[in-house]
Amino acid sequence: MASTSPEPAAADETIDTIHIRRLECSDHERGFVALLSQLSPCPDLTTSVFATRFAELAAQGDDHIILVAEDPSASDRRILATGCLFVERKFLRGCGKVGHVEDVVVDAAARGRGLGLRIVRRLVEISRDAGCYKVILDCTPELRAYYAKCGFVEKGVQMAVYF
Amino acid sequence: MASTSPEPAAADETIDTIHIRRLECSDHERGFVALLSQLSPCPDLTTSVFATRFAELAAQGDDHIILVAEDPSASDRRILATGCLFVERKFLRGCGKVGHVEDVVVDAAARGRGLGLRIVRRLVEISRDAGCYKVILDCTPELRAYYAKCGFVEKGVQMAVYF
After folding, report:
1. Which of A56, A75, A99, B153 is most buried, judged by most C-beta within 10 A?
2. pLDDT tens, A52-95?
3. Considering Cα of B57, then B61, then B67, then B73, what sign does the dihedral take?
4. Taking chain A, what is the end-to-end CA distance rounded to the nearest angstrom?
5. Containing domain of residue B116, as a range?
6. Are A159 and B139 in contact (CB < 8 Å)?
7. What CATH number corresponds to the domain at position A34?
């Protein structure tokens, strides 16, 4: 599933102490993988394996953006939330581009503070600014209302084959 | 919408005269863009613009594959059907990969011959062989049964913001 487990409801979205920024390779030490494991099975990765995948994704430049939320005042600066956007280039729509939002998750202890919504809204802005004609995501039916707060409307069904 | 307008029902899937292959830049002259316009608004592209986007996608190697169906015996060798697969690299699932099927369309005059299913099944095989842990697509609810023939099951809802 592309996007599940953000906080169920957003309350205060003006928490200025929380910083939203792009993923850095050193975030491996700040619990980034453990955070993802709240969304999907996610064995820990060695520093080397993490760095290799980080470099692969970084090579895509602004076509692949992972945002993270951190509290700079926290002693461990653990990652509290994350969301990913990648840009798909098509031929249709005049060589149009589509933003895909994936892997949105907020740490269980940090939910209800609007961090997920801040990240998703930022990813939508980035998609628009990149010239995408739309941005899409897949989620469980229960999260329809959550993503509606970011302007998303239901468009279809997601189908999958698991190997 | 990611994947609509393949043929509504597949009959004979053993039409050996139809060849499934990867998109070539010269397919611009074989009605590839006009075929896509049966799926989504798709203004014609100059040869130069088409070639530029083709090169961008070709640079992704096997992470971006567009298959097309053609009848080699036809005089104009027009493209009869197409489907796209791109591979997303993640951190979760042990640096897992996900296949995304997009832009499946069969020419209105060639529907009912199983071309869409042949292409989608091939894209599923490619995803599996590439080591993806799943392959996903978005479609309209009416196409659930169609994609079920390729092993897809419904997993969630697709949400979108259009700009």
Report:
1. A99
2. 999 999 999 999 999 999 998 888 899 999 999 999 999 999 99
3. positive
4. 14
5. 19-149
6. yes
7. 3.40.630.30
